[in-house]
Design a protein that fits this description.
Jelly Rolls; globular; mainly beta
Length: 163
């Protein structure tokens, strides 16, 4: 079941997360998923669980969501520029928590798609300060941003296992 929470963090927390995601830690190593004929790569900021800053929003989030016996697997960020798309995939762990920190206009694309049997079942619009929670085994992908958007669409991911 997909859960959506708008205006999740305070304005100050959202601003701090955005600031942290502008640090020069990005590498072109995200995605790497292949459907056999097509490979998808985009920007990635890995190992954020080693940065104490990101443990604070993680702790607040799992507490607020009342997750049963949560155990952090990893924290990372994805970044996409115009034309960079994800491919449908499932995640590791039991629960995926995605956070959308950037100011956004829906016409820029970059929305989150969910699929079942290779059919789109729902779309969650990228919206600033939105938190999306779903079972990790749910097939999903982020669509590319439109060419008119010249920035980096970012999302922060918390991967959780339930002990």
């Amino acid at each position: 079941m997909i859960k959506i929470f708008d205006n999740y963090y305070t304005e100050k927390e959202n601003h701090q997360i955005n600031d942290k995601l502008t640090e020069p830690k990005w590498a072109y190593t995200g995605g790497g998923v292949s459907d056999g004929d097509y490979h998808s790569y985009f920007w990635h900021m890995d190992n954020l669980e080693n940065d104490n800053f990101f443990l604070t929003p993680y702790a607040k989030t799992v507490k607020n969501l009342e997750l049963k016996n949560p155990s952090l697997i990893r924290i990372y960020a994805n970044g996409q520029t115009a034309g960079q798309t994800g491919l449908p995939h499932e995640d590791d762990g039991d629960t995926t928590i995605l956070y959308f920190p950037k100011p956004w206009m829906h016409i820029w694309g970059g929305h989150l798609y969910f699929l079942e049997n290779n059919n789109i079942t729902s779309v969650v619009e990228y919206k600033q300060n939105r938190l999306v929670v779903f079972p990790a085994n749910t097939t999903h992908y982020a669509s590319p941003t439109e060419r008119q958007y010249l920035g980096l669409r970012t999302s922060l991911a918390f991967k959780v296992k339930h002990e």
